[in-house]
Structures are given as structure tokens and as C-alpha cells.
Design brief:
Layout (H helix, E strand, L loop, with lengths): L2 H14 L16 H13 L2 H12 L5 H17 L4 H15 L6 H21 L4 H18 L1 H6 L2 H16 L2 H16 L7 H14 L5 H11 L4 H13 L7 H22 L1
């Protein structure tokens, strides 16, 4: 997709989604119209370094409705003004990953946002093929796109090789990127492949590696709990989910931690059934 097309449709897509791509605990109030207009005008005139700094600040509060909406406008304005800036491109892909990762949005919408984020990340790689962020966000956005398609269909169009290539290059550049995110993505990948490609031993190894890189990692624990629930290791899954529930928020990435906690709650009915 052309980046200008992405920028032109971003506002419509995000505002049309249920809740604007946020978790249950996020602030849901929509911005007042005049404030929204003023924010759009400010984004259009903000110097690029200031825009990037502001995006990073908003990213730290991205599960807040107002912060998410402002980031949306900044990404839109930035892609229109500076479609070849690497710093903007990978941050825009990061924004799309967060949107496409929201379990409260339809699978179809998550897949569309995943594809948009992947396209933007590929532009980032073309601009700077020597940095981890472009490859990482290409892989994880591709993953969300694939889950929307269905894993079998995704494999049939060759996404497995592309995912392995992008995440492999990210790992080679910085295996610890995003608080163990690279290893977490590998773990999820090996767990979600269909049989006979699925490899839950490798999934566990990568998720354990993510927890070594970031001992506080919650998403890796949730994903590993899912692996254990699928392999009749319910008590081990319960231990991990209990750790997630008890963990204080704010040790490494508060919005991500809250999202992982919400994902853990979603596994509780399965856990309860398995423990009977």
C-alpha cells in the first residue's frame, strides 16, 4: 500500500474500530471535536524531531484513548510530510502493531492493520537495512496479518519464509530488542504453526529465553502458559498465570504489561476447565 494512502485512511480506520484499538482498562472518551482539529493542525506544523519525540512519549501511554488518538494524528501527518524518514517509519509501524494486537478489535480489522504496519516497516527496511526496528516490526505486524488470514492460508502464500527472514535479521541485530520481544515472537511463531510444522519445544525454549532477557516479561509468560495448557501441563500454566496476575505494573512497559494481564484473564476459563 502507498504510504500516502495509509496516511489518508488512518483516521477513518482507527475511529471506526470498536473502542479505537484499546484494552478494557483504557480511557474510552473520544476527544472533543475542536481539540481534535487543533491537534491535527499542531501535528501538521510540528518539526520532525519534536514529532518523533512526542510519538515516543505517547507510546508510553498508548493504552490511554487520548494518547492513542493523538499518536494516530501524528503518524498520519508524519507519513504525509516525511514518508522517507526511517525514524518516523518504524514508529508508524510500531503504532500499527499496537493497534493490530488489540484483542478487543475484530480479527479482520487486526489483519488489515497488521498488513498496513508490515508495508510501512518494509519501507523502513528499504531506508535503513542495518537497524533492528524495521525488521522486528515487519515480522510482528506480518504475524498479526497472518493470524487474521488464518495460519494455513498465510503459509500457502509464503508468509512463513518472509516472517523467518525478518525476525531472523532482527535477532541477528539485537536479540534483546523490545524487552525480549524478538524471542517472544519466535515462541509464538513456533506455537501457532499448524501440525506438523508446530514445535512446542522450540516455542518453550524461545519464551524461556525471552524471560531470561526480561525477567519481568508478562506476555512471554502468558504465551508459555498457553503452550502448557495445550500440552496437559495445567499446573505449570497456573503458576505462570498467577505470576502475571500478581505482577505490579510499570516494571518495563506499563501499557504492554496491562495488555498481557488482560490476555492472561482470557486464559482463565481454559485453565479452570483443565484443572477439573
Amino acid at each position: 500500500m502507498n504510504l500516502l494512502t495509509v496516511a489518508a485512511t488512518l483516521t477513518f480506520l482507527v475511529d471506526a474500530a470498536t473502542g479505537g484499538a484499546h484494552d478494557a482498562g483504557a480511557t474510552r472518551a473520544a476527544p472533543h471535536g475542536s481539540a481534535k482539529d487543533a491537534g491535527a493542525a499542531g501535528a501538521a506544523t510540528l518539526a520532525l524531531p519534536a514529532l518523533l519525540s512526542r510519538l515516543d512519549d505517547l507510546h508510553r501511554r498508548r493504552d490511554d484513548r487520548l494518547a492513542f488518538s493523538e499518536a494516530q494524528r501524528l503518524v498520519q501527518a508524519g507519513l504525509t510530510r516525511a514518508p522517507g524518514d526511517y525514524g518516523l517509519l518504524w514508529r508508524a509501524a510500531r503504532f500499527y502493531f499496537w493497534a493490530s494486537d488489540d484483542i478487543g478489535v475484530s480479527r479482520e480489522q487486526r489483519s488489515r492493520w497488521g498488513k498496513d504496519g508490515w508495508d510501512i516497516a518494509e519501507h523502513a527496511i528499504a531506508v535503513n537495512p542495518n537497524d533492528v526496528a524495521g525488521y522486528y516490526y515487519a515480522a510482528v505486524c506480518m504475524g498479526n496479518y497472518a493470524l487474521g488470514l488464518g495460519v494455513v492460508k498465510a503459509l500457502s502464500i509464503g508468509l512463513e519464509g518472509k516472517f523467518r527472514d525478518r525476525l531472523g535479521k532482527a535477532a541477528a541485530l539485537n536479540d534483546g530488542f523490545e524487552n525480549g520481544g524478538v524471542e517472544t515472537a519466535w515462541g509464538r511463531f513456533f506455537d501457532k504453526l499448524p501440525w506438523p510444522k508446530r514445535d512446542r519445544k522450540q516455542a518453550e525454549e524461545h519464551l524461556r529465553r525471552a524471560m531470561q532477557i526480561n525477567p519481568a516479561a508478562l506476555r512471554a509468560r502468558v504465551y508459555l502458559a498457553g503452550v502448557y495448557l495445550d500440552t496437559d501441563r495445567a499446573r505449570e500454566a497456573k503458576q505462570l498465570l498467577d505470576e502475571v496476575a500478581a505482577a505490579p505494573v510499570g516494571r518495563y512497559d506499563a501499557p504492554e504489561e496491562r495488555r498481557a494481564k488482560a490476555m492472561a484473564v482470557g486464559l482463565q476459563p481454559v485453565l479452570t476447565a483443565k484443572l477439573k
